[in-house]
Specification:
By secondary structure, this protein is of the alpha+beta class. It has 3 domains: 10-58; 64-229, no CATH class; 244-340, Immunoglobulin-like (Sandwich), CATH 2.60.40.1930. It is built from 7 helices and 23 strands. The protein has helices spanning 21-58, 73-80, 85-88, 126-130, 160-168, 171-174, 216-224, and strands at residues 10-12, 18-20, 61-64, 69-72, 97-99, 105-108, 113-117, 120-123, 148-151, 156-159, 183-184, 190-193, 198-201, 211-213, 228-229, 244-249, 253-254, 259-267, 278-284, 290-295, 303-309, 318-327, 330-340. Strands 8-7-6-5-15 form a 5-stranded antiparallel β-sheet, with helices on both faces. The longest helix is centred in the first third of the chain and has 38 residues, at 21-58.
């Protein structure tokens, strides 16, 4: 028989006193309800504590009286995670600013620019943006295999004290691959460009500071500060530009000795042309030769072109072309190809 108030209307408790079982059931029911409520409240308290800690971390900040700016939130979390941020990033030289073209939230430092993209901080490719391909090897510079490292991705070497500095300061992560060899600038400074930075040789400094990171952040900021909103409401989501690239050649089938023209078109997600996008091209020939080119930035119609002569191909050789586009830190890629005919 089931234990229900209908079957057992009364029970003895402590001698002669009788208590209706319906009250026992009600008591048990309410005790279970109270335990559940307390469990929920406990979970809420724990989650609130975790949220509070995360919120406190998001709002963590540091002011720099040297330049008068403050680094906060995700920008400061990224900045402070490295052991020597002043060496690799320098002091902040701007508040958080919104790019009027890409809508990316950024903050400039003396040697770098932090971009907040999809909730994560990225280092802008200032080296690629600022390197124009000029400069020549210093007089008497002779790299040796034992003191140098060849980077397969760009086929450039990093040598001597530059290589030591690179390894000691998380160069792969912070500076990227080298995009130039040692070069001497017109003002006689010896530098080397990397994707996200430039290293300088400063023999007038103390020995431990012969190699320094150039102030590319400051230079790029001065050249481009009119592209940024002076005040930013950081809690308002921005409609980020999403660049899209398309590439094609004038002749898919090319006869020997003729010229070829590559067209690259860059648009946003609404098919509006993007002006000023950086275009990097890799042309890969069947004989192993590879041409790495930096085209002119896209014009007002979002177009960049390059004309070149094709020689030394065999009948039906295929030449793939890889195109990388960078619009103020927002990247996309595309590709095309052509074939040698007769």
């Amino acid at each position: 028989m089931n234990l229900t108030p209908e079957n057992y209307p009364n029970c003895k408790v402590r001698g002669s006193k009788k208590i209706s079982l319906k009250y026992v059931f009600l008591y048990n029911y309410h005790m279970k309800l109270i335990r559940r409520i307390l469990l929920v409240l406990g979970l809420v308290a724990v989650m609130g504590g975790i949220y509070g800690i995360a919120r406190a971390q998001d709002q963590e900040s540091k002011s720099f009286p040297e330049t008068g700016f403050t680094v906060r939130g995700a920008f400061y979390q990224f900045y402070k995670q490295y052991p020597h941020p002043l060496i690799v990033f320098g002091y902040p030289i701007s508040d958080e600013v919104r790019n009027t073209r890409t809508r990316v939230l950024s903050q400039y430092f003396q040697k770098a620019r932090f971009d907040l993209v999809d909730g994560k901080i990225q280092l802008a490719d200032l080296g690629q943006m600022m390197y124009d391909g000029s400069g020549s090897a210093p007089r008497g510079y002779k790299p040796t295999s034992g003191a140098c490292r060849l980077f397969e991705a760009t086929q450039k070497r990093v040598c001597y004290d530059f290589l030591t500095f690179y390894d000691q300061n998380q160069g792969t992560e912070l500076f990227g691959n080298p995009i130039s060899e040692f070069i001497e600038l017109p003002d006689k400074r010896i530098v080397q460009y990397f994707e996200r930075a430039r290293l300088e040789w400063r023999p007038s400094n103390v020995v431990s500071q012969w190699v320094v990171v150039s102030d590319l952040g400051w230079i790029h900021h001065e050249l481009n500060k009119n592209q940024y909103d002076p005040e930013v409401a950081t809690n308002i989501p921005a409609d980020l530009v999403k660049p899209q690239a398309y590439a094609f050649v004038s002749n898919v089938l090319l006869t020997a000795g003729n010229s070829q023209t590559l067209y690259v078109i860059v648009q946003d997600q609404h098919l509006n042309p993007i002006q000023g996008a950086m275009v990097l091209v890799e042309i890969m020939y069947p004989n192993g030769k590879q041409d790495d080119l930096r085209l002119n930035s896209t014009d007002e119609n979002g177009i960049s072109t390059h004309t070149f002569t094709v020689e030394g191909l065999k009948f039906q050789d295929v030449v793939p072309i890889q195109v990388k586009v960078d619009f103020d830190g927002l990247k996309t890629e595309t590709s095309t190809w052509f074939r040698e005919w007769w």
